[in-house]
Write a structure and sequence with these properties.
The chain is mainly alpha-helical. About 35% of the residues lie in helices and about 5% in strands.
């Protein structure tokens, strides 16, 4: 037997309406998000590369979403972690600096 009758909604009342308190909270958060984005933009120019990288990633992830992580469901083995190496420019070893001073490889 089917769980729901064909042609009838499983939720005839629809989604519950948001309360005034919920709507006020959402509005307040949206107002603060402008200031938070300004702060992230300022942190992108930080002398501390770790802070600048985290701020940059936060902005990128909010604009484009986090990268998808494919999961192979055909095996019982856990997926291998991505092999990403981040190396910084060393003028003694490298002839030409990578873009933004950071080289990302999949070696």
């Amino acid at each position: 037997m089917a769980r729901f009758e064909k042609g009838k909604s499983g939720n005839p009342s629809g989604r519950p309406k948001q309360t005034t308190d919920e709507l006020d909270l959402i509005y307040a958060c949206k107002q603060k998000s402008i200031k938070a984005l300004d702060k992230l933009e300022a942190l992108m120019d930080s002398e501390n590369e770790g802070i600048a990288l985290k701020a940059s990633l936060a902005i990128i992830e909010r604009a484009y979403g986090k990268p998808r992580q494919e999961i192979d469901t055909t095996t019982n083995q856990p997926p291998e972690p991505p092999k990403i190496v981040i190396s910084f420019f060393d003028p003694k070893d490298d002839k030409e600096p990578p873009k933004n001073g950071i080289r990302i490889t999949d070696d």
